């Protein structure tokens, strides 16, 4: 039997607590796997009250108890809490978010949970209390003992899977951060994850160009010829079905999307714009290359709508479902 998933509740001033409550209420309708939250019982209770939803909480001491309680109550492990003040982020809430993230990750790493679903944090507030990572992806990699750069962020929705090679950096820095080695390493990680976690026997990876029109034979830059094409050749020699460099403006059209399983993109917006345009309410952030399963809804804290009842749980439900599917596939070997 696969262990329950664990949720970190995110910043309590954002929509994370609401999403946890809404996902639990949708558990039967959406056939979701069992999950439990870490810390923030008072915040979750207050969020449910704000939404006008009944909520039974079950204080638990083990994942086994979570599986038993899930049908009738939202299981919560841990006693840390903070004030519930939606739309008003503060250090106390950031400390709760970090405690929840830390303990949830630890539970997954120790195999007490089959995977971790992380709800949105405010990186700036966490940095103010000593969080030394660009985001949750990098935190999880370090928590699992991996070297920087070993984990890969993939955005996955019903229509598209895309991986940005460079993430939180200035666009002007992208060309200097790209290398043939980086593309090959990330391409290998993506291919392995598509096989292991998504059951795709022979993954097809489309690699984007950096420059418009794939540089028009060098008219708009030479990164395609000197960096990207050698990487694609190396991936193909490794037995990976990699193609490109593809002009990014045409790669995500419906007919073209059917020709690949995942797109390897050169920078953040090149990957995230099409995913969010196609699958905003069902997009999932998946961390590849970890020894644990980790997913997250592909959106932020949304402080501006927190507590208003306008938060859409679609991406959180999709993240829980995807984490459960990956965990079940890994358990089968």
Task: Specify the CATH architecture of the largest domain.
Answer: 3-Layer(aba) Sandwich
CATH topology of the largest domain: Isopropylmalate Dehydrogenase
Question: Mean pLDDT across all residues, rounded?
Answer: 95
β content, as a range? 15-25%
Coarse structural class? alpha/beta
Largest sheet: 12 strands, mixed
For the secondary structure, the number of strands is 12
Report the total helices: 13
Give the CATH level 1 class of the largest domain. Alpha Beta
Query: Which shape, going by the Cα principal axes?
Result: globular
Overview of this structure, please?
Strands 3-4-2-1-5-12-11-6-7-10-8-9 form a twelve-stranded mixed β-sheet, sandwiched between helices. The protein has 13 helices and twelve strands. Helix 1 (16-25) crosses helix 2 (41-51) and helix 8 (180-198) crosses helix 9 (223-237). The protein is 41% helix and 16% strand. It is globular, with a radius of gyration of 20 Å. The protein folds into two domains: 1-149 and 292-333, 3-Layer(aba) Sandwich (Isopropylmalate Dehydrogenase), CATH 3.40.718; 152-289, Isopropylmalate Dehydrogenase (3-Layer(aba) Sandwich). The two termini are 13 Å apart. It has 333 residues and is α/β, with parallel strands linked by helices. The relative contact order is 0.17.
Brief sketch in words of this structure:
The protein has helices spanning 16-25, 41-51, 63-69, 91-109, 123-128, 136-143, 174-177, 180-198, 223-237, 248-251, 254-257, 268-279, 314-332, and strands at residues 5-8, 35-38, 57-60, 74-77, 116-118, 152-156, 161-164, 204-208, 241-246, 262-265, 284-288, 294-297.
């Amino acid at each position: 039997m696969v262990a329950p998933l664990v949720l970190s509740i995110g910043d309590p001033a954002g929509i994370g607590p609401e999403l946890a409550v809404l996902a639990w209420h949708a558990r039967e309708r959406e056939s979701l796997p069992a999950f439990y939250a870490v810390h923030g019982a008072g915040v979750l209770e207050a969020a449910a009250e704000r939404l006008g939803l009944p909520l039974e909480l079950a204080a638990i001491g083990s994942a086994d108890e979570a599986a038993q309680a899930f049908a009738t109550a939202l299981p919560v492990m841990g006693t840390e809490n903070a004030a519930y003040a939606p739309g008003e982020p503060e250090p106390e809430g950031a400390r709760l978010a970090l405690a929840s993230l830390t303990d949830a990750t630890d539970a997954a790493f120790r195999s007490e949970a089959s995977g971790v679903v992380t709800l949105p944090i405010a990186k700036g507030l966490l940095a103010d209390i000593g969080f030394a990572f660009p985001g949750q992806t990098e935190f999880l990699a370090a928590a699992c003992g991996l070297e920087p750069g070993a984990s890969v962020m993939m955005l996955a929705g019903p229509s598209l899977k895309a991986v940005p090679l460079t993430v939180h950096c200035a666009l002007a820095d992208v060309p200097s951060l790209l290398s043939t080695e980086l593309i090959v390493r990330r391409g290998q990680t993506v291919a392995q994850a598509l096989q292991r976690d998504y059951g795709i026997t022979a993954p097809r990876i489309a690699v984007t160009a950096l420059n418009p029109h794939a540089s028009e034979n060098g008219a708009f830059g030479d990164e395609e010829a000197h960096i990207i094409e050698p990487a694609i050749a190396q991936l193909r020699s490794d037995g990976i079905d990699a193609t490109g460099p593809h002009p990014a403006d045409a790669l995500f059209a419906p007919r073209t999307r059917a020709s690949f399983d995942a797109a390897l993109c050169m920078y953040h917006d090149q990957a995230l714009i099409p995913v969010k345009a196609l699958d905003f309410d069902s997009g999932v952030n998946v961390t590849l290359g970890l020894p644990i399963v980790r997913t997250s809804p592909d959106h932020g804290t949304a402080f501006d709508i927190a507590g208003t009842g306008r938060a859409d749980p679609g991406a959180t439900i999709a993240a829980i479902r995807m984490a459960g599917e990956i965990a079940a596939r890994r358990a089968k070997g």
